[in-house]
Each structure stands twice: as structure tokens, then as C-alpha cells.
Amino acid sequence: xxxxxxxxxxxxxxxxxxxxxxxxxxxxxxxxxxxxxxxxxxxxxxxxxxxxxxxxxxxxxxxxxxxxxxxxxxxxxxxxxxxxxxxxxxxxxxxxxxxxxxxxxxxxxxxxxxxxxxxxxxxxxxxxxxxxxxxxxxxxxxxxxxxxxxxxxxxxxxxxxxxxxxxxxxxxxxxxxxxxxxxxxxxxxxxxxxxxxxxxxxxxxxxxxxxxxxxxxxxxxxxxxxxxxxxxxxxxxxxxxxxxxxxxxxxxxxxxxxxxxxxxxxxxxxxxxxxxxxxxxxxxxxxxxxxxxxxxxxxxxxxxxxxxxxxxxxxxxxxxxxxxxxxxxxxxxxxxxxxxxxxxxxxxxxxxxxxxxxxxxxxxxxxxxxxxxxxxxxxxxxxxxxxxxxxxxxxxxxxxxxxxxxxxxxxxxxxxxxxxxxxxxxxxxxxxxxxx
Length: 436
Ligand SMILES: *Cc1c(COP(=O)(O)O)cnc(C)c1O
Prior knowledge:
The protein is an alpha/beta fold and 436 residues long.
């Protein structure tokens, strides 16, 4: 459960009125709820308390240093997919010894950096990568902890762009080839097998694919434990969240929500997979990103103009696809609510941003309360894959980010100053002198 809601018609994050933050910091503005993040973490930890579990937050979901420090404070580990993410974790006082490193394209430089920092494990996505890790480790006179990311060929039944565990995807090692790699790796001098990993996709709203994948990979994990003394089995992330709670009553008949209204709970998830995991006696890693941070954040935006045409009611806001890319990239649904609760008729509205792309659209003909210039709206559930995907497209500065706990708050990233957007660029020397 998240901690955003109306009190006396004003939208709050925990005990803080969002309007206060908007007045202080302007828009577009990301706001995160600390108690929501730690609550999600604890609920997952509790659901899996029958096992020796370690929760490794997927940094790519939300990489702000304050969020990473919060995860560190509540004793979480991290799932990183680049040297940059590992450096962020370290900058946030996180322990590299609690980091797993995934990704299909780890460069020699990234491997060397991670080895130097003594990360917990490399999740290897190909045999070529395993050989490269062995080579880099040899050069450093080290032994690298490794695990294979298994591609179990299970349909995750989620959006095609976030499915990762079928043979059509670039990720992991095909289930049938996994044993061969472990045998091969055993002969290498500078790696040792520490575990086995999988991650079948993101925003999964049913436990079935998880259960299917765990059931398929568990016997393999058992075998690897006997043969190579592996100590962990990571079952990845992917738990889906509710993007459309349909809590706003009064949606007209003609509006059919495309989004899932139900998703899995930590309890249901644990119920489905723990029976397969418990007999293994292995340490179980979870790599949630979206589940932890997704509905712990909102993006607040100001209505700049309302443009009524014969066909449409456009609500033009000051946040764009460069601030929140999910709708443009995945046709994702984000609930849009005004900061001041309104009564009255709902109007089919296209909420659009300022970017010069037709994809810069947050809703199409969605029934929304009528809002006017100068009012504010919040895009709900924007805490994961929001700010981390933001760009400077259209030379628009990065939005500001605020962390809220109870009734206090901290600006955890100020709005980017315009000149910062081109500060590292320079004009080629021969362009500097113009012949008159
Ligand atoms: C992205 C990713 C995750 C997190 O996925 P969520 O759907 O956000 O939980 C976990 N593990 C790996 C390897 C990933 O690439």
C-alpha cells in the first residue's frame, strides 16, 4: 500500500500536502514516500521469512542516492546493471559485497571495477562473458564469484518490451545449455560458482509464470548445489504493481481501463514459490525494483493550457515524455489526479506534454475532472523507471526530486540548471573563427 491520498480535498504524500512542495520547488517535480518504500521492503521480507532471503533492490528502477541510502539503511542489497550503477551504490554508502551485477554486455573495464570492489556475484549471461571475467580476474590475481543467469523460456505474460525470459530475448543462457557452462566454468582457474539466477520479466501481475519458472529451475539449482556447492538462487524481480486502482469513482461506462487492476501480493508470491525453494536449503535472492519504488513516487505537473478542439480536450502540462517516458515507450497507464480533489463531470481528456513528438501523450480520451490553467496534476506510480529514464530531449532540464517522510521533506535533487545541459560540450576549434 502506498501513502498518497486526499485529506480535506488536498493530495498528500504521507503527512505532507503536495501543494506545499510545488510552491517551494516548482514543477515538474518527483516526490517519493520513504515509508512506502520501506513498507514494501519489509512486506516482502516478511512474506519470505521462512527462507534465508536477501533483497537486492534493482537500481535501474530508481537510482537517486537518497533512495539507495535508504535501502542501505534498511539492510538491503542491490542489483546493478552497469559500472555507473555500482558507483552510485558506493556513493550512497552501499556495500558492494551485497551487489549482484547483471547485464548482457559487461565490458572488461566494468568487470575490473566490480572485481576491485569485491561485489557479491556476477550474473553471467553468456559463455563468452564467463571467459572474459576469468581473464580479467587472472590479470588481477583474483577469483571472481559467478552465477549463470538462466533463461527458463517461460512466457511472463507481460508487455513484450519487458519480457526477458523467453528464447526470443537476448537475456541469460538457454535452460538446456546451462549445465555445459557450469562444467566449463569449473575448469577455469579464476572464477568460482556462487549461485544461479533468473529474471523472467517485469510488471508480472500473476504468480503463474513465477511458479512455472521456479519449478523449472529449482531442480537445476539442487543439482548445482550438490555438484558445485553454490550458495544462492536468485529468482529475480518482476513483481507487478497496480497502475490503475480504479479508485476514482464515477468512471463512465464507455471507459474501459486497459491496465491491470489486480496484481500479486508478496504473500501470494511467497505462497506459490516458497514450497519449491525451501527444500533447496539455499540462500534466496529477490531483485525487486518496481515493487519497491513504483507506487512510492509521483510526478507533479502544472497545467499550462487547456485546448478544446472539435474532437479533443487537450490538457497541456509542463511535464513531458523526457521526464516520464513509460507512456511513450510502453503505452503505460499512469493514473492522473488533480492536487485538489474536484467534483463535477468528467471530461474525456488527452493529457499531453510540451515535447515536439506525438508520443508525448499521457492519456487518450481519459475521463478526467475538468482542470484549468495553473492547476496541478499528479501522475501516480511514477517512482520506478520514471526519473531513471528521464532525458534532456528538447533541451529540457531534469526535474527536481523530493523525499518525504511523515511531515518532513528533503530536496534530494534540485532542478537542473539550464546551463548544466551543455556544460560538457564544446565547439570544435575550426568552427570558432568565422572568415569575414
Ligand atoms: C530490471 C531487473 C530487475 C528488476 O525488475 P522489476 O520488474 O523492476 O522488479 C531485477 N533483476 C534484473 C536482472 C533486472 O534486469
